[in-house]
Design goal:
alpha/beta; 6-stranded parallel sheet; two-stranded antiparallel sheet; globular
């Protein structure tokens, strides 16, 4: 009998990303990061001029961070122990929106924090990647965890019967992110792992009823 499968995002679900990215920008790049709304692109401004970075510069900064600064990322409270607890009852894989050349870097980064799981990289909406992973594993139940509402929308459009949890573990941005649960694209919105783990375990127990 196949096991259930949990497919989890990484940044802001398992590891903090925005805060170390903000600190690196301020310390080394002459850029201020102020998240006043949900628009990430307009949050980055040159400190000398106050001008918003062009989109290509934002992507360049993100690339530079992931190429050299992933060591700054620390686990979200309860995330690693929570996901490892789930791994006792289900297969766990990571689906992260990074370019493919950073797949091994992400795998090693998570292993350094005590999480040993297969990592899939993706660019763009996650629905098609989720579909491919589920076809590979043929699980008895699939649960998807992500911090961004557009990926839950994509999941619901692409994968029939998937259970989805909207979880953003970074308080700096959580309140700015539209709720996928309220939009009807997630089964729940829970932003703390001490509350998310019992909910997720409950979903796995349902599978065995």
């Amino acid at each position: 009998m196949t096991r259930p499968l949990i497919i989890s995002d990484c940044d802001e679900v398992l590891l903090h990303m925005v805060v170390p990215f903000r600190d690196w920008l301020d310390e080394t790049q002459g850029i201020s990061f102020n998240m006043d709304g949900a628009d990430f692109a307009n949050a980055l401004r040159w400190q000398k001029t106050g001008e918003v970075l062009e989109q290509n510069e934002v992507w360049r900064m993100l690339g530079g961070f992931f190429d050299t600064e992933m060591g700054r990322q620390t686990p979200i409270n309860g995330a690693i122990s929570g996901i490892n607890t789930l791994a006792e009852h289900a297969d766990v894989v990571i689906l992260t929106n990074l370019v493919d050349k950073r797949q091994e870097m992400r795998k090693e980064q998570l292993a350094d924090h005590g999480l040993h799981a297969k990592v899939y990289t993706n660019q763009g909406p996650k629905g098609p990647a989720l579909k491919a992973i589920i076809e590979e594993y043929q699980p008895s139940k699939a649960i998807f965890i992500d911090d961004l509402p557009q990926h839950h929308h994509s999941a619901r459009e692409t994968v029939a019967g998937i259970t989805t949890l909207h979880l953003c573990g970074e308080p700096l941005i959580a309140s700015h992110i539209a709720c996928a649960h309220k939009a009807g694209h997630a089964d729940a919105r829970i932003d703390a792992w001490d509350e998310a783990l019992p909910w997720l375990m409950g979903q796995l127990e349902k599978e065995n009823v």
